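Quick illustration, no need to memorize.
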Amino acid sequence: MKLILDIGNTRIKWRMDGALGDVTHLQDGWEAQLLAGWHGVERPTAVFAGSVASESISQRVAECVSQCWPGQTLLWLRSQAHCCGVQIQYAEPQRFGIDRFAALVAARMEFMDQALIVVDAGTAITVDALDVDGLHQGGMIMPGVRLLGASLSDAASQIPKIAVAVDDAVCTPQHETRLAVSAGIRCMVQGGVEHAIEQALAVLGGAASIVVTGGDQAVQGFAMFESRGLSVYRREALVMDGLERMSYEVRDGSCPCH
């Protein structure tokens, strides 16, 4: 049994043999929560992790693994120029986020020989274009809903700090500051994602399937693409699935992802 860890900017997700869990590492005491989630879980045969969090957070996760299962080695999965059927064109492939790479791997694995646009809506929102041969044709990174809200309230003293809720008004004029901020941020996000997808379609020749993942439900507006005959798929565990696929490649030696 392999333990797979997806260490993001906000949350740590884990999966092993059907068991699932996640903790938010932005608050004190998250290590205890992580260890509690692993309490009683059988010792894994291997532990693989992909991380876009700080070195400090990643190291503390590694310490939790050692504390729970003494002597257990943690293998870090990293982006490569060419691995698992995906090829990227970064001059320094290691600077390509492992979450983006893993999402591309999982999408490619499921939708082989299709041009793909992968949208990952988390703390940051990424939109990546992958052609039919698995070659990454570029991507865009933009701040997510919560980052936009935080930056606005930090810079404007009269703007309240808000938590943008899923059921808040979407892209319509409002009569209360909190809702006006929520609607404005949602308009920015929706318009930004739609424009990024249009640009990705342009580099892919005008046709592609769109695969969406990430926990930010504010990223919507895909009906306009479906009305044009493009397929839109939602895959909640895309990054985790990609990390697991990469772990198999590492174990059989066919891909130097670690």
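The chain has two domains: 2-76, 82-238.
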